[in-house]
Amino acid sequence: MNFIETRGNDGVKPIEVPFSEAILNPSTSFGGLYVPKSLPKLEDNFILNHINSSYKELAFDILKAFEIDIDESEINKALALYDNFDDASNPCPVVKVKDDLFVHEQYHGPTRAFKDMALQPFGSILSSIAKKRDEKYLILAATSGDTGPAALNTFKNKENIQVVCLYPDGGTSDVQKLQMVCEDGKNLKVLGIKGNFDDAQNALKKLLASKTFKEELEKDNINLSAANSVNFGRIIFQIIYHFWSYIQLLKQEEITNGEKIYLVVPSGNFGNVLGGFYALQMGVPIEKLLVASNENNILTQWINTGVYDIRGKELKLTKSPAMDILKSSNIERVIYSLYGADRTKELMEDLNNNNIFKMSENETLELQKYFSAIYSDDTFGTKTIKEFLDIGYLMDPHTATCIKAYESLREKPLKTVIYSTAEWTKFSPTVLNALNQHNEEYRDKEALEEISTKYNATLPQSIKELFNAKINHSSVIEKEDIEEEIVKFIRES
Ligand SMILES: *Cc1c(COP(=O)(O)O)cnc(C)c1O
What is the Å distance from ligand 1's center to 235 Cα? Predict the structure, then answer.
């Protein structure tokens, strides 16, 4: 199956490209995104036929249906990385918390957040294509805290790939920072930036547009690629686990085949819930996708009004930082799917030029057939973390935003799966304050120890080890010096 562009084709780029090309070179005509030409038709009873499949078998069959141009042996090698998750047979367990409420835990991978679900196999596939083509790639990532560790972990020591990861110094949790600065691997460079996440991201964008930078890379025959969720190579792996949610409820005899369920997804760049949207269109009986946000509630506004307006809006720093966002990249793929390329180009250009786009009433109604949305603030989050611990379930602040949607958006009494995108260990000071119902300054180390002793919560080995690990990356630099540092790194390694 080939891939086409959400904003249409400029007559210079190829009209369609295979999967390997779409993921190695994700830049397109008019700044659009690659999407599959159509979604695969699955066999009748695909879900029932997979009720006893392992996660890897399910994943393999879904990837197969997309007819991607990747050798089966490479697909299997990539999927084998799920064996490193806590439970190889069930990398993302779906756990019952209340009669009609289930938590899909997406954080059982090496860096304890949902980014591993896709980045682990994606890293393996990307490196295999680069090797096969005998090309070298540089991957630049700006992170607010979860993508960085996951990208470094997956690309560590991979052939034909180098990674530079920019993080805002002081803007991540201790655990997130240690996960980056302690990572070894000759092909990795981690740079702290004096500034916030936006500064890091803007510096990266400037670099991508820099002529001198491109010339330096060309001298070394290095191509640029991207590992953020605009890359369809990540999205494809984010479709699979929504099938898994449904199959797990069937297996646990919580639903009968065909019975609809709600999915609630804590959202930022809209990549996680986009996978759910595709799963719905591929036949998973989903009543609706409920989109949870924090006080950066741009997605709530868009889904409820059809207007996406970031004029004069400033990013708020919340206790669920992975969802702190103004421009959410993957809504573009939904817009394309519902209204086509011409309209997508029009709306996205409005947003770029005027910081606002407005959909028509009919378009908005169409969107609302699939999505509902609501947001909650940090006060709701901390109250929720405490309430759920009281019934025996420990959740992180991102997961907690889902409870608002679970409580207020459901129109039918259907079973509901909420997505837990991070383990509590990544945000332990916030969680401890929620549990103790106060507001103190903690280092992660103290908070982790107190929670694990007082509430008998398990600390994974990978988190414990961080506090004694060797720091391999100690540079914190000015934005202006990024280009020079990266060029130096490329030349040295
Ligand atoms: C990345 C992330 C999200 C947001 O996911 P999107 O796919 O960008 O919507 C939510 N929670 C956590 C913990 C994350 O790391």
Answer: 13
Q: Is the pLDDT score of 363 beyond 80?
A: yes
Cα(103)–Cα(420) distance, integer angstroms = 6
- Specify the range with the lowest mean pLDDT, choosing from 62-66, 397-401, 481-485: 481-485
Q: What are phi and psi of 417, to 5 degrees?
A: -110, 120
The CA 104 to ligand 1 mean position distance, Å, reads 14
This prediction's pTM: 0.97
Question: How many CA atoms, within 13 angstroms, populate the side-chain half-sphere of residue 342?
Answer: 0
CA distance 78 to 29: 30
Pocket of ligand 1 (CB under 6 A): 113-115, 146, 229, 266-272, 322-323, 398, 421-422
The Cα–Cα gap between 493 and 482 comes to 17
pLDDT at 151 over 80: yes
pLDDT over 90 (residue 204): no
Residue whose CB lies within 8 A of the most ligand 1 atoms, among 175, 398, 402, 418, for a mutation test: 398
Which residue type, as a one-letter code, is found at position 302?
W
How far, CA to CA in Å, does 5 sit from each of 10, 333, 413? 10, 10, 39
Q: 177 C-alpha vs ligand 1 centroid, how far in Å?
A: 17
- Contact yes or no for 18/3 (Cβ under 8 A): yes
Query: Please, which pLDDT band fits residue 196 given cuts at 50, 70 and 90?
Result: confident
Element (H, E) at 302: helix 298-305
The mean pLDDT value of the chain amounts to 96
